[in-house]
């Protein structure tokens, strides 16, 4: 992710000023980078795309296919952005005032692009997730709105208020306040999580056939992962090399009823990354270590010395920005092939301490 090639784009002062960043592969699977500096200025470089302007740039860089050096994204600088989601053709962000911005390909007129702008002024949102050509946003009252698939801020009817959501390529998984998971959109590969899916279900939010209380949901391109309160991981959807294996104990090409993923220990965090190739890489942080899986039908443990490196091998996890730790800002120019990130407070204390020691070990080895 932050590799030597990427760092060559940044001078020493720029590197030390990086406060948060996101790395992704949109259309054509080429690398794009967006990062905020200490002055809340947003810069982008890498793939931009004439048909997407996925970095949201204006001026002479507008609709450039590639941007070779960090270029300021004027329309999102100084907006105090707190969250960002990067899809294949569209991107979105939330600011401190819960305003929703989006940009990229115009979903109504695909030959046009949209510059970053506030969507639905007056509405307050707490989460957003972008897929291939869809975007879903969750407002402060637990209501979900959808853009794309011939929808413009379409209010989705869900039985219970929603507290978290995640977008796949063309489907959405929603975690309701009662701990149940609901899905919407395409379900051909089983990603909706129930038997009997038909195309008539595409515009309906239906409950996944999983009778366990969940704490998190994460979508791959054509698959869905659910984390339960007991720390178990359940999955459904495509289970093959082209969209990513689920880690279940068989090689059936698709799973319609969620099955338990064979990952050791209690799962604390599940994340996924995907891009234009439609392949999904899943990773789970458990009480036994960090595990990841993709093309192989089973999970693999990442050896302790490489955990930090593995966290930074691929693109940023979907719907997540990395926030650079204050303690490593001055050393980033020397940590060419890895980036240290703040440890989430939500991790169990033991796992947090373990990861912190690993990060310190890697840092000291570079000194």
Automatic annotation (TrEMBL):
Q: Which PROSITE patterns match?
A: RCC1_2, RCC1_3
* A Pfam short name: RCC1_2
GO CC, alphabetical: ribonucleoprotein complex
Keywords, sorted A to Z: Ribonucleoprotein
**RCC repeat start-end pairs:** 40-97, 179-230
InterPro entries per the UniProt record, alphabetical: Ran_GTPase-activating, RCC1/BLIP-II, Reg_chr_condens
Designated name of the protein: Heterogeneous nuclear ribonucleoprotein
Lineage per the UniProt record: Eukaryota, Metazoa, Ecdysozoa, Arthropoda, Hexapoda
